[in-house]
Structure prediction request, 449 residues.
Amino acid sequence: MRKAADRTAVFETIPVRRAVCMQIVPAVASQMIALVYNLADTYFVGLLNEPHQTAAITVAYPSFVMLTAISNLFGVGGASALSRALGRRDPEAAGRIAAFSFWGGLASALIFSLLFFALARPVLTLCGATGDTYDTAFGYAMWVVVIGGPATILGTLLANLVRAEGSASSASAGLSLGGILNLILDPFFVLPQFLGLGAAGAGMATALSNLAAVLYFLIYIRRKRGQTVLRAGISILPEAARHAKEILFTGFPSAVQYALTVVAVAAQSRFVSLYTTEAMAALGIVKKLDQLPLYFSIGVANGLLPLLAYNFASGNQERRRKAFSFGCAVSLSFALFCLVCYELFAPQLAALFISDPLTIEYGAGFLRRMVTAMPMMSLCYPMILQFQAMGRLKESLICSVLRKGVLDVPLLFIMNGLFGLYGCMWVQPIVDGISLVVAGSFYARLRKR
Prediction:
């Protein structure tokens, strides 16, 4: 087995900025690949120049986000608990944590997929499906959520666990494999000159790609036996169950945030669906475009999490603070860069996905408003992940709940009533501003302690 000192050097001895880069660069790279293959669905479906197909993907998106919520419950919770166990020099506990996270995530994935299949019509209708878009949305969701849902959850979950013991490059390789495969498969499944399956074909490509990522991670764990603390054996589950509370409590805020994201996205889609199909298609395009700074910040936060959790558990608070500050600076800088580019080139960016003039007009207006939330969001994510790394349930839960769901829905009613369609696009900047103030006050209080 690799010596513990070799495995944990990135957490303990490597200079802080270099250690942060070693963790966040692969994490951000894997998030960028994930973004590209999420964009690929919208891009290749958009080439059909049929707004109802693009709108259908938008309608199904909230259900896809719920998969991330389940993944984070066990993936973020398990990663934080695993890194803290390593910081306490307890590799056996780390192995049990990994096993419980894997099997808990798989069981939850299967249950969610079955529930969605049973309740697909009311769920998709609630998310804005209409007579024009329901059948297409269901075809896409059938592959992405029902058939491919477990693979989506396990791929992200296993990447978090691999990253948690310091193997950020291996985590990135697994996620990148799925993303690259999706890029290759999308045009063959979607476009009329090949299979011509439209949105449903995009769903098939995503499901197969995520399955490939899961197989990569399972093979990785098998081949690294003796060199990794990760375990997936079902025989240690009885012992692993003792870590359930720690894992679920730590991952709960991230799961709640993504679950409430479903509420917020579904509510926004519902309001926009009251206008035109082109507006719904434009919202789908913009939600993809604003994922660039969002995914970058998530990558930074995910890369920081093991560093923060390990050093918090080992008592090296100075190293933890330095890593957090540098990570936040990187995240904010990229968000500001995206803000400038999106404001300047909004119509051109929207036109990359569709050639319908009205959809492009809506998309440019939506993008210029929604992207103003990105700098604030770029700091919120690392702050919430830091609270989770420290095991601070109250602070991370409050900030997560504020970011999505609780404020969004009432603000949608207010802004839609006052300013109409474009007023709905100002909701997220307002919410992220409030969340950042609250998170900052919590962090300042913890620093004084």
